[in-house]
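Case study 2.
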Amino acid sequence: MSRIGNGKIWVLFCMTVMTGSKAAAKRETRMSEILDCAENNFVEKGFHGAGISGIAKECGISVGHLYHYFASKDLLIEAVVERELMRQKERLGDFCNLNAAEIRDQIAPLVIDIIMKHQDPFRTVLNFEILAEAQRNPSVAAILHRYDGEIRDQFCAVLEKAGITTPFLRTEMLFTLFAGIPARTLRHPEQERPQFIEMMKPIITKILVGENLPVK
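Prediction:
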C-alpha cells in the first residue's frame, strides 16, 4: 500500500509541477505581449503621453487585467527599460565566446556588423525615451546606470582577454560613438548608411585595436 501511495503522491507532484510550469509559461507569454504593446505606445506617444488604457486596449485585455501583471505604470515602464537594456547586453554574447586570437581578428568586423544591423528607428526612439525618462525618474536612472556599467565591464573584459591595452578608454570611446550614430539617423534619415559606415571602418578599427600592445 505504501508503494502505491508513494506512486500516487509522485504522480500528483508531477502533475502539480507541470500545471505550475504551464501557468508560469502562460504568464510569461502574456507579460511579453503586454511589454510589446507598451513599447509600441511609448514609442508613439512617449512614456508620459501613453496611458495604461491604451496599452490594455492594444493587448485586448482590461486595465484591471493588465494591473494583475504590472501593478503600476511606473513598474511597467521599468520592465520595458529592463528588457530593452537586456537586449543590448545579450548582443555581447558573440564576443564572449571568442578566444584571444579570434577577438583581435574579428572584433572590429563584428562591431561594424552590429552597427549595420542594429539601427532600427523604432528601437532608437525607445532608447531616447529611456534616456529622457532617466533624467526625471531615479528608478529608471538606476536601471540604466546598472546595465551600462555591466555592459562596459563585459566589453572591457573581452578586450582584456585579447591582451588589448587601455580597454576602459577604448570601450568608452566606442560606446560614445555608438550613442551618436542613432541620433544622426533620426536627424538625417536620408543619410547614406553604407558609405558612412565604410568611412568609419578604419576609425572603429583604430579605436579597438590600433597601436595595440599585449598586456604583460
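The chain has two domains: 2-71, 78-209.
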